[in-house]
Design goal:
The protein is α/β, with parallel strands linked by helices and about 300 residues long. Helix content is about 35%, strand content about 15%. Strand 11, helix 8 and strand 12 form a beta-alpha-beta unit. The protein starts with 7 loop residues before the first strand and ends with a helix. The structure holds zinc ion.
């Protein structure tokens, strides 16, 4: 029988309200999204630190404030961004994770680690031209090992974002040498709408990923997409025992009337039920992902 479906809501990413007015920026708005998405059926919230006007933030205190706000109002598993290429230098990228390790009440359960490097130039589909021609997103193996070590010592589990098949091969080797613990949580990231760093969000794109998952290891896997609807990959995941990570942070969903995150979660819950998948509660998702129960996450005193 297929496992219960874990839904991660990707609430804001780098999306602005000019594209979808429901994008949360502040800690309070992120926490309200957590409450609404939990009621709708999500078990994880993934967020990026944003300033009051939506600007990208790398300030550790902004991250910690958001985690605390979510904890105060919801039971969702909290999954933080890792700053991506906003911040230069491994130590700076991990600054908020280190700080979370010293303040358990503001510690995320998980954080996103992209397990490799790729070109991230955006192609303007209307104009038929590249917006940039020299943008790369670089994560050396040394960086991955460093970030994994910092996360381990802070008590934050990695969610492993894989943009292409070589990333999956790297996950397998990192698990082989004990850098990544079982059960691993692998996120298959698709890209559409002028983003070309990953697989297309199609059945074929999903099948290629699925064929190269390290099925011989203890893993859970989920799907997400930048710049387009998650529907094709979500349907594939629902059929093949995977999980889903939708969010208006990734795509504004005009075809669904520019929904809130909670409305989007509701949409995918309906789809999941049609596929015969039950929805995991946050507590069930914690168990499936090998995370500590919520009480242990928030009441432990930092040493
Ligand atoms: Zn993110």
């Amino acid at each position: 029988m297929a496992p219960k479906l874990i839904i991660m809501a990707r609430v804001n990413e780098r999306m602005y309200r000019t594209k979808n007015p429901n994008i949360p920026y502040t800690a309070d708005e992120i926490a309200q999204n957590a409450v609404d998405c939990e009621n709708a059926g999500a078990s994880i919230i993934h967020f990026h630190a944003r300033g009051p006007n939506g600007e990208q933030s790398s300030d550790p205190d902004v991250y910690l404030e958001a985690v605390e706000a979510v904890r105060a109002r919801s039971n969702l598993i909290v999954d933080s961004s890792l700053g991506q290429n906003l911040v230069k230098g491994d130590e700076n990228r991990a600054a908020h994770i280190r700080k979370m390790g010293e303040n358990i009440a503001a510690r995320a359960d998980m954080a996103a680690v992209d397990v490799g490097s790729t070109n991230i130039d955006f192609f303007d589909l209307e104009k038929g031209e590249f917006k940039t021609t020299d943008n790369t997103y670089v994560n050396t193996t040394k960086t991955l090992m460093f970030l994994s070590e910092v996360m381990k010592s802070a008590g934050v589990r990695p969610h492993l974002t894989c943009w292409t098949i070589p990333f999956l091969r790297t996950v397998d080797r990192l698990m082989q040498i004990g850098v990544i613990d079982e059960p691993a949580f692998i996120q298959l990231a698709f890209s559409e709408g002028g983003h070309m760093g990953s697989h297309p969000c199609t059945t074929e794109g999903a099948q290629a990923f699925y064929n190269h998952l390290p099925h011989h290891r203890k893993i859970n896997w989920t799907v997400t997409v930048m710049g387009g609807t998650l529907l094709p990959a979500a349907a594939y995941a629902m059929e093949h025992g995977g999980h889903i990570s939708p969010g208006i942070g990734d795509y504004e969903y005009p075809e669904l009337g520019y929904p809130t995150n909670a409305k989007l979660v509701e949409f995918f819950v309906t789809l999941a039920r049609a596929y015969g998948r039950e929805i995991a509660t946050p507590a069930e998702a914690r168990q499936m992902l090998g995370l500590a129960p919520l009480e242990a996450s928030v009441t432990r005193v930092a040493s």
